[in-house]
Amino acid sequence: MSKNSNKPSVLVPIDASTDEQPDPRLLELLKPARVVLAGWYPVPHQTPPEQLKRAHEDEVTEYIETIASNLRDDDTAIETVVVFTPDKSTTVDRLADEYNCGVVLVSKAVKRVKRILVPIRTDINLQAILLLVGVLIMDSEATVTLLYVAEADEDTGAGKIILRGATDELQDAGINPGRIDTVTLESDTPINHIVDAAVNHDLLVIGESEPSLIEQIIGDVPGQLLDQTDRPVLIVRKLSTGEKGNKHSEEPPE
């Protein structure tokens, strides 16, 4: 087993046709994880991807490698891939599978990463979410808020049990209980309460409810959160099968 086998793997998509770069504070937080920087270059429909690849591959590769070089050190596992694609959503989903990334970063600018919000609806995918949070904040000063927003008239008892178990798991992983807050709310509009709570936090960690990142970006609760918050988001994928082996291959022309 490699030394990185127990690390969460995070895919970081970067629009290589612009000067877009992940916020360095987010990259610093991700250092305990295995990071895959995916530089994607948008290809207009009816334009052969190979044409843009020939024209821009060297500069795009240099751009992504420069970002990677600022993150790499002896304790950071980081890989890069460059793709030319007309469809970002499909490509992100496929690269996450190819590189065995259970987490995808939706990057936005931050002033700091001191408070992390983790909205929880059920215990589905919860273990993967807590593993990621525990690894990322272990050596940082960040605190985490576990938030359960129940639907109106829903029994909040189940939510409190889930939050109690999540707190215990983070503590078992070595996180000081003073760095963990839990909040249980009841609301007719859970999304609105999560968005409101995000204002007082620097980063959200949310989980998929179905094994397709594309569906989550387009709709459902994670998609709505992405639309309504200006905070960066780590999406913890719900894989439909076991871990897939890393292919480490560049995307073929689409």
Explained architecture:
Helix content is 36%, strand content 24%. The protein is of the alpha/beta class. It folds into 2 domains: 9-106, HUPs (Rossmann fold); 115-233, Rossmann fold (3-Layer(aba) Sandwich). Strands 3-2-1-4-9-8-5-6-7 form a 9-stranded mixed sheet, with helices on both faces. The chain starts with 8 loop residues before the first strand and ends in an 18-residue tail after the last strand. Residues 114-237 form the UspA domain. This is UspA domain protein. It holds the Pfam family Usp.
Sequence of secondary-structure elements? EHEHEHEEHEHEHEHHE
What topology, given as strand order, has the largest sheet?
A: 3-2-1-4-9-8-5-6-7
User: β content, as a range?
Assistant: 15-25%
What profile does the largest beta sheet have?
9 strands, mixed
Question: Shape from CA axes?
Answer: globular
Summarize the structure.
This protein is α/β, with parallel strands linked by helices and 254 residues long.
Spell out the blueprint of helices and strands.
Blueprint: E1 9-15, H1 24-30, E2 34-42, H2 49-69, E3 77-85, H3 88-98, E4 103-106, E5 115-120, H4 126-137, E6 143-151, H5 157-172, E7 180-187, H6 190-198, E8 203-207, H7 213-218, H8 220-228, E9 233-236
Parallel strand pairs: 1-2, 1-4, 2-3, 5-6, 5-8, 6-7, 8-9
Antiparallel strand pairs: 4-9
Pfam family, one: Usp
Protein name: UspA domain protein
InterPro entries: UspA (IPR006016)
